[in-house]
Design brief:
elongated; 419 residues; BirA Bifunctional Protein, domain 2; Rossmann fold; eight-stranded mixed β-sheet; single chain; five-stranded mixed β-sheet; RNA-binding
Length: 419
RNA sequence: GUGGUCGUAGCUCAGUUGGUUAGAGCAUCAGGUUGUGAUCCUGAGGGUCGGGGGUUCGAAUCCCCUCGAUCACCCCA
């Protein structure tokens, strides 16, 4: 096909109906679940001072090579948000709300990477964050909130994977152990992983390269390096999930890509997704991040779910269809006057979904448009109806057409749509 | 950033070993008597075959470059 002059940039796309209805409904479900769990919505700006995001970690790809950074006219360095957590922490520090601060959000985030299935440069997330409490039961609540959301969409093939990364203080010894271990087996490690090792040894555990698997399998485990506090918290989260009947898998190699995570980390994987990008959501605790933003040393825990991937998962499981926003009534008018327009607005005022033929085309053309709109009723006004003070109602199925008084039009049409 | 695959009408695709005005289905529009859709019939519009260059008497078909899409690596939602 000959390409148009302009088209969407790589990794971006137009969301068109009926997907738009579906996205909106999905966010609606999440908003409802979040509110049930005591979270209120926050809408941070889409771009921030670049420092807000670079605080996420010097070793994270999200910051070092995927950030959409730019300067404003005054030379101020800023960037499109690659995720929400940083913005939420910044907002917390800026406004100092009461603790715990529980907020949810929905909106686009931006990462400049090569697009592929389930991975876009502009992608949609919903998520929730709670700042100001160490309570591991809060971790559990967050996880269950996400799980309930998936459940309400109708998704079944979702696996919850759980791990802990320990406290900041536990980290150095563990990292050292990893460096030693992998360092001694350097020749058994893939080239890529060797590079990763020098940057962030944790991330080597996350390698998907088959060659690395045997080595990773017997690598040191964080659980052996946990402080008692972190260990107890991890047990408490597991106990909570068990008490609530939420299934999970432990995976000591789950490290997640952002450097700020501490203690609990989790990921939701869709097994029905035939794409490499099968993580539909993830999150964890970030106990030092608020302080890094220049705020008080308040802990935080939260998650983000990828809306685009979740929708893909819904597709492959055949669940969560778009809600019906179809036109109910289609107004056909051949008078050339304003009667059709008036009727359409009257019916709209009465709360019905009404569309109308434009451009004064032939009745046949208007009826075709009516049929295409998938409305179930056509209201027809021509010269005869106007003269007689009536309107013709034509059901767009097999039922017979009938005539109603113009003055009773709205009530007669409403009768046609019970409920 | 690296690699694989792909790029013909709005959509899904044909297009034989390079050979005359590039096709189909769906969709769109208009007709099939005077005001009636979804079915059926007839017809019409719509493509410089992603773009540029080259080989050739001749290229949608072969070669090179480029752009784009897609999938994967990496990484993550």
């Amino acid at each position: 096909m000959a390409r148009p002059t302009f088209q969407t940039l790589p990794g971006t796309r137009d969301l068109l109906p009926p997907d738009t209805d579906r996205f909106r409904a999905l966010v609606g479900v999440f908003a409802d679940e979040a509110a049930r769990s005591g979270f209120s919505q926050i809408v941070p700006p889409i771009f921030e001072e670049i420092g807000v995001f670079t605080r996420l970690g010097e070793a994270t790809d999200v910051v070092t090579k995927e950030l959409y950074a730019f300067e404003d006219m005054g030379g101020r360095k800023q960037a499109l948000r690659p995720e929400f957590t940083a913005s939420v922490c910044r907002a917390f520090v800026q406004h100092r709300p009461l603790l715990p601060w529980k907020s949810w959000y929905a909106g686009p985030a931006f990462r400049q990477e090569r697009p592929q299935k389930g991975r876009y440069r502009q992608f949609e997330q919903v998520g929730a964050e709670a700042i100001g409490s160490h309570d591991p039961d809060l971790d559990t609540e967050l996880i269950v909130l996400a799980a309930r959301f998936y459940q309400r969409l109708g998704l079944k093939d979702i696996t919850l994977v759980l791990n802990t990364l320990g406290d900041k203080a536990d980290r150095p010894a563990f990292l050292e152990a990893l460096r030693d271990y992998f360092g001694q087996n350097l020749d058994a490690l893939s080239q890529k992983s060797r590079e990763t090792l020098s940057l962030n040894p944790l991330r080597v555990l996350d390698s998907k390269r088959p060659d690395d698997q045997p080595l990773i399998e017997s690598a040191p485990r964080i659980t052996d390096y946990l402080s008692s506090g972190a260990g107890l918290a991890f047990e408490r989260v597991q106990a909570g999930l068990e008490a609530l009947g939420v299934a999970y898998e432990l995976n000591p190699r789950l490290v997640r890509g952002l450097d700020y995570y501490t203690r609990t980390t989790f990921e939701f994987l869709s097994s029905s997704l035939d794409a490499a990008q099968n993580a539909v959501g993830g999150g964890g605790r970030y106990d030092g991040l608020v302080a890094d933003m220049g705020g008080p040393d308040e802990p935080g825990v939260g998650f983000a779910l990828g809306v685009d991937r979740t929708v893909l998962a819904c597709d492959s499981e055949g669940v969560f269809a778009a809600p019906d926003t179809r036109t109910q009534i289609f107004v056909v008018s051949t008078t050339g006057g304003l009667e059709g327009l008036k009727i359409a607005e009257e019916l709209r005022s009465a709360g019905l979904r009404v569309d109308r033929a434009v451009d004064h085309r032939s009745m046949k053309a208007q009826m075709k448009a009516a049929n295409r709109s998938r409305a179930s009723l056509a209201v027809i006004v021509g010269p005869d109806e106007v003269a007689a003070g009536t309107a013709s109602l034509r059901p767009l199925d097999d039922r017979p057409q009938f005539v109603v008084e113009r003055t009773e039009l709205v009530s007669r049409v409403k009768e046609f749509f019970p409920s």
